[in-house]
Design goal:
Blueprint lengths: L8 E5 L2 E5 L5 E6 L14 E2 L17 H14 L16 E2 L4 H4 L9 H4 L12 E6 L11 E2 L2 E2 L8 E12 L5 E12 L11 E6 L7 H6 L2 H10 L1 E2 L4 E2 L4 E4 L2 E4 L13 H8 L16 H8 L11 H13 L2 E2 L7 H12 L10 E2 L5 E2 L5 E2 L6 E2 L7 E3 L22 E3 L9 H5 L13 H6 L6 H8 L3 H13 L1
Parallel strand pairs: 4-16
Antiparallel strand pairs: 1-2, 2-3, 5-8, 6-7, 6-11, 9-10, 12-13, 14-15, 17-20, 18-19, 21-22
């Protein structure tokens, strides 16, 4: 399908949303009340919610057939998949990491992982995390692939289970306030095939990303990101960001999504395949092809003669994700928040967590060709440059180096995490676990794990007064 919608350029003025056609002639004008004390995060896709569903609301422009498709995509995202091959919610397994998109991304956020609460693979093996494994030479294990699936349908053996233990180390700020960092140690056990010797194994765990601003990220002006990479060099602070480039659908593209900017799209098709074991037109083979779980699945009645999810359904999920609104900032008139924003700049956090970017004029295109021009021409505030930065390898022995290479990203290089919506994570998902594997239990720990190119900002934060540090955290909570 290749549906093209008439292009509208949205211009946000004080209190008014005006739509113009390509000639600049005004064709629509409607009032959009901006509550006092709020700040727009994503232009016309900003929503004004401060609740457990703040990440899970459609943008204002979603209407008509797109509202219907949004609802359909929302259902496919949230509803529990089954093993039935009946063309509706079926096709799960035989091995999987999550039983729906929403199982790991509750309310389009980050489901609380079991790494802290249950020490690894939790009840029925569910961790709300992805377990990546490679040989130490970078090769994949033929019996497992890139991800260990710790869930399986009834009667089928999972590929393995995850156990995590923690090393704790106490520190102090110069003013005497204590803080603690926790380093995870990951272990795979109950391998379905031959156990892999620890000395030949790299294991990294990724907890879910917030699905905030996905449409804006897909519509972002790629040239602006490349320009940032060209001039993102601040030797006085040890900062030099670079873009990641990857090959998807046979085309070399700028990476934007994922922990290491290792994807050019929202990986809907890959998520159905790798995370849920559901075959589709892009990934028609079972994720456990060649493994014993295929035969076990057949014995349990699983069929392999049809695709488990249609391209139309996957595009509706893509539409849902790209049409979600971005929560407006809160408490922007609070004195502590205002002071905290000053501290954010004083600590040079903005050099990587870039405050303002723009989307390309014509918006984004969904996986099957539907265009979303409403996302075009917007001023957005994601607090990210979407570039790779070396985050260090020396804190507690390993820092944030996970030894996992993705495209041009080395193990110690990570995409700058967008911060929009981060202050609502506790309200939406009930926890404040941050960083790629959830090792940081709060904002302070997340900052203090910064090494490498983040070392200067960490030290500037570290040497602030407690009042200034608290105000910087108050600013982060307003995002």
């Amino acid at each position: 399908m290749n549906q093209t919608i008439k292009f509208l350029l949205f211009v946000v003025t004080l209190g008014t949303l005006t739509a113009c056609d390509e000639t600049g002639d005004q064709i629509v004008a409607e009032e959009m009340t901006i509550p006092k004390g709020y700040a727009l995060s994503a232009g016309t896709s900003t929503v004004f919610f401060n609740s457990a569903v703040a990440y899970d609301q459609p943008a204002k422009w979603v209407s008509g057939v797109y509202d219907t498709r949004f609802t359909r995509g929302d259902q496919l995202y949230d509803n529990v998949k089954t093993i039935n091959n009946n063309g509706h919610m079926g096709g799960l397994g035989p091995v999987y990491a999550g039983y729906s998109c929403g199982s790991c991304h509750r309310n389009a956020g980050r489901t609380e992982p079991t790494l802290w609460t249950q020490g690894g693979s939790g009840t029925y093996g569910f961790t709300s995390a992805l377990i990546y494994v490679t040989r130490k030479n970078g090769a994949f294990f033929p019996d497992y692939g890139r991800v260990i699936h710790d869930n399986a349908i009834y009667g089928v053996q999972p590929e393995g289970k995850l156990r995590v233990t923690w090393d704790f180390q106490k520190f102090q700020f110069p003013d005497g306030e204590a803080y603690e960092l926790a380093k995870p140690n990951f272990e795979i056990y109950e391998w379905y095939a031959d156990s892999i010797a620890p000395e030949d194994l790299f294991c990294t765990v990724r907890i879910p990303l917030r699905h905030v601003g996905m449409g804006q990220i897909m519509a972002i002006d790629r040239h602006e990101i490349e320009q940032l990479a060209a001039r993102s060099n601040y030797p006085e602070y040890g900062i030099s960001g670079k873009a990641n480039y990857i090959v998807e659908r046979g085309v070399r593209q700028l990476g934007l999504s994922g922990n290491k900017a290792q994807h050019a799209d929202l990986t809907v098709e890959l998520g159905f395949s790798s995370d849920m074991g559901m075959t589709n037109s892009r990934y028609p083979e079972e994720i456990s092809e060649g493994q014993l779980q295929i035969n076990q699945g057949s014995m349990m009645g699983l069929l392999y003669d049809q695709l488990d999810v249609s391209t139309e359904d996957m595009e509706n999920v893509d539409l849902y994700m790209q049409s979600l609104g971005v929560p407006a900032r809160r408490n922007v008139n609070d004195a502590h928040v205002i002071r905290g924003e000053q501290m954010f700049y004083q600590a040079k956090c903005h050099l990587c967590h870039v405050t303002t970017l723009h989307t390309q004029p014509r918006g984004s295109t969904l996986l099957a060709g539907t265009e979303l021009p409403w996302l075009g021409g917007q001023v957005i505030h994601p607090y990210s440059d979407f570039l790779l930065h070396d985050m260090g390898s020396e804190i507690m022995g390993v820092g944030l180096n996970d030894n996992y290479v993705s495209g041009l990203a080395r193990g110690n290089e990570w995409r700058t995490t967008p911060l929009w919506g981060v202050g609502l994570q506790q309200k939406v998902n009930g926890h404040t676990y941050f960083l790629h594997d959830g090792r940081a239990r709060n904002f302070v720990e997340a900052i203090m794990w910064h090494g490498g190119e983040g070392e200067a900002s960490k030290n500037l934060f570290k040497n602030m007064s407690k009042t200034d540090r608290d105000d910087l955290i108050a600013f982060l909570k307003s995002l």
